[in-house]
Design goal:
Elements: E1 2-3, E2 6-12, E3 45-50, H1 58-61, E4 64-66, E5 86-91, E6 94-97, E7 104-107, E8 114-118, E9 149-156, E10 162-165, H2 172-179, E11 197-203, E12 206-212, E13 239-245, H3 251-265, E14 273-279, H4 286-300, E15 304-306, H5 315-326, E16 331-332, E17 343-344
Parallel strand pairs: 1-17, 2-4, 3-5, 10-12, 10-13, 13-14, 14-15
Antiparallel strand pairs: 2-9, 3-8, 6-7, 6-9, 11-12, 12-16
Length: 347
């Protein structure tokens, strides 16, 4: 399944049906009179968040959404049929933005949320409704109220409890593979991860969702590397796990580069709880691990956990810290089950 986190769509509600101009023509009724019915209401455009979706790929192939218009009224005071509402189903975590991306119009954070976004036009009045004591045979009628339309952007922000950040090759993919069934791609080159990856961690009979995003480099906020586009997927996280490669020449500088990019991005990412881990310690001796941990603690002002994502050393310690930070948001663990791999595809 391809992963797509942005899509532009066109939505249009249905216009109202026209009212009817009709007069009674019945035998043995001395005076007829107007009996044109009203037009039907146009269909609404409704957004609904549903569980089980984690990509906007469907909106690559279907980009125009039009609700049907209302039917016209008819004689014998019959009102036209209303147009069916059009329900657009989106993944939980989807935001609906204006065409210029400046305004967030809707934000779906829970399954089952349902919002009428564009209301269908009301039906026009039939000539029967225009009858008065002085206007016994009206011939005017309403044409129906027009539809509403809009170009919109859909932006998906994955709902995860913990987010992994760090420079490229910090070992984020190896870590998420160690603690989940995500099966993220691992390679000995920068930017192995080119798309967000989700995995479910089960630890101490509790479970929580971890999001791995492509690594950040200096200048990511200005578009360097893959840029900071995917940082939106960790905006909703309760805690960030910052991995620093123990093989970096200056681990403190590596830490500060990522923190500076998070600060430049904004959205409160630097205000989140953070767990700092020195990764790949299986390649170092104890004395060097202690020295690098002290240097990193001084730069971050936080406790540093030495780990090896490949060997599993210190992983349980990190998961304990993450679980404490997530708190009640961690669910009771369910039976283990496989997860579908999601392949990211650019818009």
């Amino acid at each position: 399944m391809h992963f797509l986190d942005q899509a532009k769509i066109y939505a249009c509600s249905g216009s109202g049906g026209p009212g009817a101009v009709s007069f009674r023509r019945e035998k043995f009724i001395e005076y007829g009179g107007p009996d044109g019915g009203n037009g039907g209401k146009g269909g609404d455009i409704i957004f609904e968040s549903v569980a089980g979706l984690n990509t906007l790929i469907d909106f690559r192939y279907t980009q125009h959404f039009r609700a049907p218009r209302g039917k016209g009224g008819s004689g014998s005071n019959r009102t036209g049929a209303g147009g069916d509402d059009l329900v657009i189903k989106v993944p939980v975590g989807t935001q609906v933005l204006s065409e210029d991306k400046q305004d967030v119009l809707l934000d779906f954070t829970k399954p089952g949320e349902r919002v009428v976004f564009l209301r269908g036009g009301d039906g026009g009045r039939g000539n029967a409704s225009y009858k008065t004591s002085t206007n016994r045979t009206p011939r005017q009628h309403g044409t129906g109220w027009p539809e509403q339309e809009a170009w919109l952007w859909l932006r998906l922000k994955l709902l995860a409890d913990a987010g992994l950040v760090g420079l490229p090759n910090a070992g984020k993919s190896t870590f998420i593979n160690q603690v989940t069934n995500a099966q993220a791609k691992v390679g000995e080159y920068a930017f192995t991860t080119t798309r967000p990856q989700l995995g479910v961690v089960r630890h101490h009979q509790r479970e929580f969702v971890v999001a791995d995003i492509p690594g950040l480099i200096k200048g990511a906020a200005e578009g360097a590397g893959i840029g900071d586009r995917f940082l939106g997927h960790i905006e909703r996280c309760q805690v960030l796990l910052h991995l620093v490669d123990a093989n970096d020449k200056y681990v403190a500088e590596s830490y500060r580069i990522v923190r500076d990019e998070l600060e430049n991005y904004g959205a409160g990412l630097t205000d989140k709880k953070v767990v700092v881990a020195l990764n790949k310690i299986d390649t170092l001796d104890d004395e060097l691990i202690a020295a690098l941990s002290g240097e990193l603690e001084e730069a971050s002002g936080a406790e540093v956990i030495p780990i090896s994502g490949a060997a599993g050393t210190g992983v349980d310690w990190v998961l304990d810290k993450l679980l404490d930070a997530i708190g009640d948001h961690a669910k009771v663990s369910a039976d283990d089950q496989g997860e579908d791999a999601i392949e990211w595809s650019p818009i």
